[in-house]
Amino acid sequence: MYSRTGRLFSEHFGRIEVSSDHYFSNLIFYIHYNPQEHGFVDDFRHWPWSLFGALSSDRSTHLCRCAVMDWYGGEREFVAFHRGAVDEHAIQALLEDDLD
Question: Rounded to whole angstroms, how far apart are CA atoms 51 and 61?
């Protein structure tokens, strides 16, 4: 539309099938943890643009907060899961793609 070119506009985004509930849970954690992994913050919970903050707060959002909380078994379980470490084996393909 705007005649722009470059990596963002000309290459396809990689897609990896989410093949299990375990993988999906770890994928959500990985997305939230990514700013900390790359050194933007010491604690991903303080990253201002993270969906973790929107999901774990009472602020108004367009996200389906209840669906995410239900996925983890409730807000307490969601927060507890995010205190753990990312299961790198479950998301190895994403980690390898991120290093490219």
Answer: 10
Domain count, the chain: 1
Model confidence pTM above 0.70: no
Instruction: Give domain status of residue 12, yes or no.
Output: no
Residue 58 lies in a domain: yes
How far is residue 38's CA from residue 31's CA, in Å, rounded to a whole number? 12
Domain that holds residue 77: 20-99
Give residue-wise pLDDT tens across range 46-97: 898 888 888 888 888 888 888 989 999 998 898 888 887 666 676 666 556 5
Closest CA to 75 of 59, 61, 55, 60: 55
Burial of 75 from C-beta contacts in 10 A (0-12 / 13-18 / 19+): middle
Neighbour count for residue 44 (Cβ, 10 Å):
19
The helix/strand/coil state of 39 is coil
